[in-house]
Amino acid sequence: MALNRIWIPMIMVILLSVGPSLAAPSQIHDTSRRLYDRVMEEFKHRDYEAALAGFRLFIELHSHSALAANAQYWIGECQYRMGRYKEALTSFSHVVSYYPLSPKLAASTLKLGQTYARLGDQENARMMFNRVLDQYPDSSEAELARKAIDLMASKDDSTSQPPE
Fold it and tell me: Which pLDDT does position 62 carry in this prediction?
């Protein structure tokens, strides 16, 4: 009987201390999803400065969320759309380097190519486009990479021909 007096309160303490922590991940997920969706609305309304700040905050608060890689991608997209190409390169590179299982890998690699092209670095642009073709051959990004390579080739042809 004395043993029951010790074990019952001990079990209650354990159950009560574990209970809230089991509910916490769901609440954290709901909070992170709501914040992510709210920031995406800023992006969709083309308020890239606000979206950039929001996605940075999202990563600061929810760095281990399943949406962190997406937020990092959208940081790069905001920077790209604002003409901050060197910053965009860093952001898209972070997706590729730090989120190897992200569904945004193909898109980030394509955006790296597009960003290099904007910066006039055709060699690295072509390398990124070819990486998309090699690693994600059946993706929609691969089709865009093919078009970009074709466009680069046609520009190369027109500049290498002597004037008539």
Answer: 94
Contact, 62 vs 54, CB < 8 A?
no
Separation of first and last alpha carbons in the chain: 106
Are the C-beta atoms of 107 and 73 separated by less than 8 Å? Answer: yes
Residue 95 and residue 125: Cα distance in Å, rounded?
17
Give the chain's radius of gyration (CA, Å).
24
Burial of 82 (0-12, 13-18, 19+ CB in 10 A): middle
Q: Which phi and psi (to 5°) does residue 6 adopt?
A: -85, -45
Give the integer Cα–Cα distance in Å for 133 and 141.
Answer: 8
The pLDDT tens digits for 81-131 are 999 999 999 999 999 999 999 999 999 999 999 999 999 999 999 999 999
Q: Per the structure block, which two tokens stand in for 93?
A: 């590179």
Alpha-carbon span 92 to 112, nearest angstrom: 6
* C-alpha closest to that of 55 among 41, 131, 126: 41
